[in-house]
Amino acid sequence: MITQLKHIAIAGNIGAGKTTLTKILAKHFNWTPHFEDVENNPYLNDFYNDMHRWSFNLQIFFLNSRLKQLVEIQKGDKTVIQDRTIYEDAYIFAPNLHEMGLMTKRDFENYRNFFETLKSMVNPPDLLIYLKASVPTLVEQIQKRGRDYEENIRLDYLKRLNEYYNNWLDNYKDGKLIVINIDKTNFAEKDEDLANVIQMIDAEINGLF
Q: Is the CB of residue 187 less than 8 Å from the CB of residue 17?
């Protein structure tokens, strides 16, 4: 039993709406948001142009940046909501890159061993929110936000990531989990949908204490 709600994390594929929901919930619940640093990531452009060459570098960058966030969360006394988790890098993106032949076996095993060491040093989130979306919905939302480096994302890449996400969340046992179907929920534009999401979160939070 936890004595204080410290860490809420939002997981989901590229374009699922993690950053938008993080901002909304941070404001509503007065939580401190931690965002994925896409603007200052030195590898993203190179990665989308040459995934095989830059996959390991990109994953190490993400692993390091999210580990720093987790250390800050554990040391701090505020309730933090995190845009994407450290687990997604290890259970979704890295194995997908390896299976697609975009990360060598040597690099993948090195990465996973490093992750397992780090995992033993940090706590899982008190509440995990998974934004589940079909590939067409992801594509629509990716196009809507218009990031240049995302123009070359392949449909099969998104599809495979979705398969990894669903497998991971179907077997998730590290803590409380909420699954939100983004195909049927437009929390960014419909007040009723947002109210339903907040109600689901309130119910889970109350159940944590």
A: yes
d(CA 105, CA 166): 23
Q: Which two tokens stand for residue 208?
A: 């944590």
What ranges make up the beta strands (E) of 78-169? 80-83, 127-132
Active site residue 156: no
Residue 14 phi, psi dihedral angles, 5° rounding: -60, 125
Among candidate residues 50, 77, 83, 148, the one labeled active-site is: 83
Tens of pLDDT, residue by residue over 116-135, are: 999 888 889 999 999 999 99
**Cβ neighbours of residue 76 closer than 8 Å, sequence gap 6 or more:** 6, 32
7-208: CATH architecture: 3-Layer(aba) Sandwich (3.40)
Distance CA 178, CA 10 (A): 9
What would the two tokens of residue 111 be?
């990465």
Domain boundaries along the sequence of the chain: 7-208
pLDDT of residue 2: 45
